[in-house]
Amino acid sequence: MSRPRKAEPEASFDTELADLPEPMRWREWMGRVEGVIFSARDPVPRETLARLVGRECNLDDLVEDIVDELRGRPYDIVFVAGGWQFRTRPRFAGAIRAARVAALRDAGAPELTPTELLALTAIAYLQPATRAELSRLAGKEISRDVIGRLKRLDLIDGVLRAPEPGAPFAYVTTRTFLQAFGLANLRDLPDLERLEDEGLLQPPRSVADLDSVLAVAEEDAELPDEAEDDREEWSGA
To answer: What one-character DSSP code corresponds to residue 79?
Structure first.
């Protein structure tokens, strides 16, 4: 009876590429990083990409070079929900939805009703928040159907029971929320006091009002310092 053959040892993955000239080495690292981000459905964290390149490689500079090469294309690489991800540019979202192609990787944020947008906005800023708290803010009842749809879209989750009579669920946003609205973390939400001054945390005047709150922020607004730690704890970011 013959002995089974031993498996051949796998060659170690060469991250340093020391045998290549520096320009070729950089291009190879760029290709590896872009290829992995392109093939991944979810945002790819820094520690994953760092395993593809040499120890002396500045990953931020590398990704910036990739982004520069994508200028003018209908897609981009953005940092959302703790990692890098290919995203179609917002101005093409309408065309992508109109194509009605199944299993699209990214067509922007889901379409929500004004009440759903109001509830989601309130949860993003007040989390953890109960349905009763959301209803008081809205000046009308936020129904279980509204909460249910936001949960089905995986934009929110009920992670705990509030310490009050009846022990209702308290809701927080999810990583999917960050991905859908192009946010790296909850610090990217526009400043709460500014939104209150502009009336955007009152019952919605239009869908556009609330959509502007949760759109990809091009401003450098940050949450108030005293709120950052509490909100990060519940965001899953």
So the answer is: E
138 closest CA partner among 204, 73, 59:
204
CB 59 within 8 A of CB 27: no
Q: Is 81 within 8 Å of 184 (Cβ atoms)?
A: yes
Tell me which amino acid residue 20 is.
L
- C-alpha dihedral over 49, 53, 56, 60, to 10 degrees? -40
187-233 tens-digit pLDDT = 888 776 665 565 555 543 333 444 454 443 333 333 333 333 333 43
The answer on pLDDT for 102 being more than 90 is no
Whole-Å CA distances, 78 to 72, 110, 230: 15, 18, 25
The mean per-residue pLDDT over the stretch 122-145 comes to 87
* CB neighbour list of residue 216: distance below 8 Å, 6 or more residues apart: 90, 181, 182, 183
How many beta carbons lie within 10 A of that of residue 70, not counting itself? 14
Which helix (H) or strand (E) is 31 found in, with range? Answer: helix 22-39
Dmax (CA) of the chain = 83
Q: What is the mean pLDDT of the chain?
A: 76
| Sign of the CA dihedral running 229, 179, 87, 149 | negative
69 contact partners, CB below 8 Å, separation of at least 6: none
For tokens 């590896």, name the residue: 32
Please answer whether residues 146 and 119 qualify as being in contact, where contact means their C-beta atoms are separated by less than 8 angstroms: yes
Q: What is the 3-state secondary structure (H, E, C) of 187-202?
A: HHCCCHHHHHHCCCCC
